[in-house]
Each structure stands twice: as C-alpha cells, then as structure tokens.
Write a structure and sequence with these properties.
Oligomer: single chain
Number of helices: 4
Radius of gyration: 18 Å
Distance between the termini: 69 Å
CATH topology: GMP Synthetase, Chain A, domain 3
C-alpha cells in the first residue's frame, strides 16, 4: 500500500496558508533588503516570519526588531511592499501587510537581560 494521498488543496500535505506564509516571507525579505539599500534609515531588518490570515486578506510580518521610527517608515512604504508581493506572488488578492516585532525575539532579549543581571549583579 502507498502513502495516503495529500488532502485536496495542499501540496504533499502542506497547508496552503503555510506555503503562502513562506513565500511572503521570502518576497518581503528580498523587497526589504532592496529598500534598506536605498533608505538607510530603515537600518538592518530581518524578517523572522509571516502569519497570514486564513482568508489570505491580511498578513502580519514579524521582524527581529522594530522601533517606532522604523514602524512608521514601513507603514509609509507598505504600498511598495504590497506591490512587490502582488507582482511576484499569484494570489486572488494581495494580503494587507502589517508589521510587528517578533514576540519570540523580544522574550529572548528579556530572558537574556535577566540572565546577564543574575550573573553580573550591580553593587
């Protein structure tokens, strides 16, 4: 007997939203790299993940760090990024992008800071 056939609408059992998340992460990361080459005020940005809504109408882009200034700049350039997604990804609708700091990275920094304070307490 062979392996079970993948569910309809998925490639090799990999859910569609997960595939879209991965493609969006790659496209947005490449587009952000090009933007940071032309606009140094964006600084160094790393896309850690993308979480698309199940209806694919919106997508939250998680970044390793996100200051208020950079968040404003990204919001101002959101149209360009969405245009890049629309030109590279075949979807019925282009998801509306929003940007957020990756909570795992934020929590990791908090834990790292706490460990640093434990190992080197201030007098």
């Amino acid at each position: 007997m062979g392996a079970a056939a993948p569910r309809r609408g998925s490639a090799h059992g990999y859910p569609r939203v997960a595939r879209v998340n991965q493609v969006l992460r790659e496209v947005v990361a490449d587009a952000l790299e090009r933007l940071t080459d032309t606009d140094e005020s964006l600084g160094m940005l790393t896309v850690t993940g993308v979480e698309c809504a199940s209806d694919l109408r919106s997508a939250k882009v998680y970044l390793s760090s996100l200051s208020d200034e950079v968040a404003e700049l990204l919001e101002a350039r959101r149209g360009e990024l969405q245009h890049e997604v629309a030109s590279q990804v075949r979807l019925k609708r282009t998801p509306r992008l929003t940007f957020a700091a990756d909570p795992a990275v934020v929590q990791g920094a908090i834990v790292e800071d706490a460990l640093r304070r434990l190992s080197h307490p201030e007098p």
